[in-house]
Amino acid sequence: MEVLIMKARKKDSEAFIQLMDLNTQYMYKIAKSYLKVEEDVADVLQDTILTCYEKIGTLKQNKYFKTWLTRILINKCKDILGRNKDMYIREEIPEIPVNDFHYDNLEWSQVLQSLDEKYRTILLLYYLEDFNTREIAEMLDMNEKTVQTRLARGRGKISELYQMEERRSSI
Q: 130: helix, coil or strand?
């Protein structure tokens, strides 16, 4: 990936396309954690890719490419949320009947969707994308202690879900 980043910084469009292809699924997961409407997600991805292409020369060190990309993506998501504040309707997570709720069969994305966005994004970046708390704090422009606290609280909420399911299964 290092070679692709170096080539992309020199405006090699083929290298840039490959770089974006390698990161599309990652960007989609992050955007989807912020936005629920697929059209908004597609718009943010397109806008992020365009901005990255235009500003890749501003990337200071290749090793921070993913952090740089993520920060642009998150800012674009926040722009959409802010712009559509009054008319943006977040899809609610459907109520899951107690008898049909089986934690073992629940996918990670469903667990994440049941959490408040402030926990969801941090858990996603930490567990699925392997960023450390310092990197997440930098991306989200917040104090590292806040990231650590939200990470712990997010884990706690997931643990509560699991414990609720354990109690239900034992009844």
A: coil
What's the pTM? Answer: 0.67
Backbone phi, then psi, for 141, in 5-degree steps?
Answer: 55, 55
**Spatial separation of the C-alpha atoms in residues 59 and 57, rounded to whole Å:** 5
- Which comes out higher in pLDDT, residue 132 or 91? 132
Q: In terms of domains, do 59 and 102 share one?
A: no
Question: What is the sign, positive or negative, of the torsion defined by CA atoms of 124, 125, 130, 134?
Answer: negative
pLDDT at 15 over 90: yes
28 or 115, higher pLDDT: 28
CA–centroid distance for 61 within its chain? 22
> What is the extent of the structural domain holding 35?
1-91
Do residue 13 and residue 68 come from a single domain?
Answer: yes
Here the CATH number for the domain that contains residue 14 is: 1.10.1740.10
Average pLDDT over residues 1-20: 93
Q: Which amino acid is at 65?
A: F
Q: Pinpoint the alpha helices (H) of the chain.
A: 2-9, 13-34, 38-55, 65-83, 108-113, 117-123, 133-140, 144-170
